[in-house]
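Priority: medium. Attachment 1 of 2:
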């Protein structure tokens, strides 16, 4: 193994979560900041968090409605083309 090419390893690195939880782990970084941990993650807590930023659900519903109306318009246009 080559010497002096590996990063420094911290056996007691501190992980800080946005919820306030802190724990120690081994890492090449002395301190790690995270937004979600096992104490606040919906999968582990059983609490569902719905994050609808910028109306994504409404945008999806609008696209779906448009897609459902497309075959009707296409069939109508095809029928009119045959009549000509």
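Attachment 2 of 2:
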């Amino acid at each position: 193994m080559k010497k002096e090419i590996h990063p420094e390893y911290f056996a007691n690195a501190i992980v800080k979560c946005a919820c306030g939880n802190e724990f120690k782990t081994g890492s090449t970084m002395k301190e790690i900041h995270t937004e979600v941990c096992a104490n606040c993650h919906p999968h582990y807590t059983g609490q569902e968090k719905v994050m609808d930023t910028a109306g994504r659900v409404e945008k999806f519903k609008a696209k779906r409605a448009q897609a459902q109306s497309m075959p009707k318009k296409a069939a109508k246009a095809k029928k009119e083309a045959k009549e000509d």
